[in-house]
Specification:
With 316 residues, the chain is mainly α. The longest helix has 22 residues. InterPro entries: ARMC9.
């Protein structure tokens, strides 16, 4: 019949035809694909829900760029602390921090005697400087947390570089008092903080801001008979990082930094061998002679100073 011939085969007949067909024909038969379940009216696609969660402020999933910059790169030989991705900095009142610095430093400058009150003031100031440094140095390298730590310190003027207030002992700045008037832990921790800030662009611009006496204080803190290898290491590191700027390099040449670094490097022989034990001793200040770090940063400082006209004349 024509009508019967024109009818489409049913599913059972189709399966029978598949079984009777040759193998090369059966491979070409297309199976019907199951349709995805229809979404209900109240449900939303998973992609849009996840994007809204990642874009929301209170969502548990961080934004892709923020999560990317919060991840610390793998640095050989250095174990980075595990920071949570949602960790934020504690707000600080830098006006109170500066007042605490001034009160402690003025207490140390009032007398040369070492009593319980002076020891307590030195401990308080040094621990406060250390806490500020840890906000920068303990954040993952290249992370949003590290950048924000430096910028909040710059906005708050943590070292009072823009302050015109004079101390009771004269017109010197707070950095002068901490690097030149104070010794021991306060001087060492201040050098470490300046070195940590100088490692970033925002920190260098802050340390070299108009009216700042950081370069002058660092140059005055130079000691040809420096016995504290840790302090010398951070002093060299801070001077080398700041010498990238020509203005700072010219100032260092005028203050005699080039003669000091040249004398420091005289007679130094480095093997180039870097071992974990040597790096540990260098970091902990257990090596009495010039370490690899000091030699490298001293040579870099000498090269940077030789690039400015004053340095070229001194080198000749």
């Amino acid at each position: 019949d024509d009508a019967a011939a024109g009818e489409k085969p049913t599913r059972a007949e189709d399966a029978t035809l598949d079984e009777e067909a040759p193998s090369h024909v059966r491979e070409r038969v297309r199976r019907p694909r199951p349709r995805p379940p229809a979404a209900s009216a109240g449900s939303r696609p998973a992609s849009s829900a996840s994007s809204e969660t990642s874009g929301s402020e209170g969502g548990s999933v961080k934004r892709p760029l923020e999560a990317k910059y919060l991840e610390a790169p793998a640095a050989p030989g250095r174990v980075m602390p595990a920071y949570a991705e949602d960790q934020t900095l504690v707000r600080l009142d830098y006006r109170e921090v500066i007042l605490e610095f001034r009160s402690g430093v003025e207490r140390l400058l009032m007398t040369d005697a070492t009593g319980p009150e002076e020891e307590e003031a030195e401990s308080r100031v040094s621990r406060l400087v250390q806490a500020l440094r840890w906000r920068v140095s303990r954040a993952p390298e290249g992370s949003v947390l590290k950048v924000e730590a430096v910028r909040t310190m710059v906005r708050g003027d943590a070292l009072a570089l823009r302050s015109r207030q004079e101390s009771e002992r004269g017109s010197g700045s707070l950095v002068d008092a901490m690097l030149l008037g104070c010794r021991g832990r306060v001087r060492a921790e201040t050098l470490r903080l300046v070195n940590a800030l100088a490692a970033t662009g925002d920190g260098r611009r802050y340390l070299l801001s108009p009216g700042s006496r950081v370069v002058a204080a660092l140059a005055s803190a130079v000691d040809f008979n420096e016995q504290d290898t840790r302090a010398r290491r951070h002093l060299l590191g801070a001077l080398q990082k700041l010498s990238f700027h020509a203005v700072a390099a010219r100032r260092m040449c005028a203050l005699g930094v080039m003669g000091w670094v040249t004398r420091t490097l005289l007679g130094v022989v480095t093997t180039g061998e870097v071992t974990a034990e040597r790096l540990r001793k260098s970091r902990e200040g257990l090596i009495s002679h010039l370490s690899e770090y000091d030699a490298e940063h001293g040579a870099a400082l000498l090269m940077n100073l030789s690039l400015v006209p004053q340095g070229k004349r001194l080198a000749a």
